[in-house]
Amino acid sequence: MNFDVTSYPYPSRRNVMYAKKGMVATSHPLAAQAGLDILKKGGNAIDAAIAAAACLTVVEPTSNGIGGDAFAIVWVNNKLYGLNSSGPAPKGISIERLKKDGYDEIPKFGWVPVTVPGIPAAWAELSKKFGRLPLTEVLSPAIEYAENGYPVSVGCAKLWEKAAVNVYGQFKNMEEFKYWFKTFAPYGRTLGVGEVWKSKDHARTLGMIAETNGEAFYKGEIAERIDRFSRETGGYIRKEDLEGYKPEWVEPISVNYRGYDVWELPPNGQGLVALLALNILRGFEFNSKDTVDTYHKQLEAIKLAFADGQKYITDPLKMKVKIEDLLSEEYGERRRKLIGERAEMPCHGEPDKGGTVYLAAADGEGNMVSYIQSNYMGFGSGVVIPETGIALQNRGYNFSLDPEHDNCLEPGKRTYHTIIPGFLTKDNKAVGPFGVMGGFMQPQGHVQVIMNTIDFKLNPQSALDAPRWQWIKGKTVEMERGIPQHIAQALADLGHDIRYSVGFTQFGRGQIIWRNDDGVLVGGTEPRTDGTLAIW
Question: Example GO molecular function term (predicted)?
């Protein structure tokens, strides 16, 4: 991997980092350090990733929790493996039942969008297949922080207060939301910066997951608690849904971009969107990052990719087109020809028939992990199971109640999923894991980070520091202030609806670890959050 070791010409408070024996990149310092501690105790990159992930459910509950989903791409013994640990809709829910219950659309919060959580199963499965240390030891740092507490970070405190006031405050008097406030606002308010938060319920739940390798969550006491609370407060999920759940090992999918293979997981995740965009963009030449032509083509490609993704991505067993057809060179060329000199409204094509945390970990033996987990929209559904600390996700919100839609709601079906891990290889050798979390920003972040790396030769930190854009809908694009104003104006003249944003969280939060030919690890972490690289 050849890149410019100097900084990109935008302010950053971090330098690119180098290490030999191990590296863990996360959005919270305590989680990164937990992963590194596990490496030093004899664990491998997989153990470190699990430890960091479990820790993040405690120290960053504003973005993820035990009740969410997870995906992973793992490089072990010179082979790539993919894990889809996203859960399906309960078997007792359907379009017909929701219509009968008075719903015309799926709400964001409450029991309706709750799907079967996959995170505990992901930890157990990764540990069983590739881990070196017992899960009890790997989860011990997370249990320690949950039991004895930790000081709340700046970024987390702001998101926590926003969730309590602007999101869940409207549901405060409803029975199914009562335990969110009891768990996350125990003093009648959320905790401020530097205040110590602890959750003994969360610690006890993590302990049961560790001691039973996840069985307690899906078949034991925790499953029974979820079932009971669901029945008592009008939920749809049952113990039978949890008992029948298993994560799935899948074959990652890729496109070759200028000699590098860019890997994502297949649907139901939206990693396909990033590959669709890169499949279009690889037919152009880009000589400079900050030009009107570069931004225009990137924006038009991502719009076309999303049009296809939002049309076709759903549970892989229900998809009506083949992935290889969508990623074919011929289809990429057809979509590429739709990019003209002005901004266009996106539309899907017809191929020939034939509230998230991201982390990366690597060890000195060559093992590498790209891992992501989320509850969605911050804390998720707002439903917290009493005496467990478990905040349940609201992934079902992405289902459609239109029975003709490819991603329509069905019992036991997995929905279009936003969280995606990425991985880069060259000549069948690992370059490393990368990811940018943040809802529908994620494939857009993947495209920008990969182009920053391959086309513009930026080192991992500079690739993350560079200002980002996000296509919202139609011709609307949000941009960070770091993008030059004359470029924004020129894009507006081409028909793009450009809006500068003063916020940071909507542009995603990323991590990168590359391995050089000599085995040295090179990492970058997100400057828009409390991102940290723990190195050895």
Answer: hydrolase activity
